[in-house]
Design brief:
Structural class: alpha+beta
Largest sheet: 7 strands, mixed
CATH class: Alpha Beta
Helix content: 25-40%
Number of helices: 5
Order of helices and strands: EHHHEEEHEHEE
CATH topology: Aminopeptidase
Distance between the termini: 33 Å
CATH superfamily: Gcn5-related N-acetyltransferase (GNAT)
């Protein structure tokens, strides 16, 4: 897009950019999808690596990577979707996984997001499951260390 600002990507700990991470996740998961706030934020946040994507200085996307290679809480604000920012979050998390020595990443994808992850090279495995009242599928991808 001509004239569109270049997004900035920051990899950090939860405490380093907590306000930005919370703002995006509350808007996407709590307000938009109706997930309970107490279910959205958990103990894993403190042990995970987080990615925050900003546009014009404002947080518009986020995601996290746990030590075992599990990616989660991928969120992009509705007004900023379809601009490649979800891909930006995923690439940053995959790089963080490779940097920590992981050879594989996996995630629980909302069923409606499965095609997005498939375009990024993820494959479905296991049985469908429900989390926070939303149907999900497990997906995985090999990453180069």
């Amino acid at each position: 897009m001509l004239g569109a600002p270049m997004p900035t990507v920051r990899t950090c700990r939860f405490a380093d950019d907590e306000a930005a991470i919370r703002a995006v996740r509350v808007e996407v998961f709590v307000d938009e999808q109706g997930i309970a706030r107490e279910e959205e934020f958990d103990d894993a946040d403190d042990r995970c690596v987080h990615v925050v994507v900003r546009s014009d200085g404002m947080p518009v996307g986020t995601g996290r990577l746990d030590r075992d290679g599990r990616i989660g809480r991928i969120a992009v604000l509705a007004a900023h979707r379809r601009r490649g920012l979800g891909r930006t979050v995923m690439v940053a998390l995959e790089r963080a996984a490779a940097a920590q020595g992981s050879e594989r990443v996996y995630l629980g994808a909302q069923v409606t997001a499965v095609p997005f992850y498939e375009r990024l090279g993820y494959r479905v495995f296991g049985e469908p499951f429900v989390e926070a009242g939303i149907p999900h599928r497990l997906m995985e991808k090999t990453v180069a260390p």
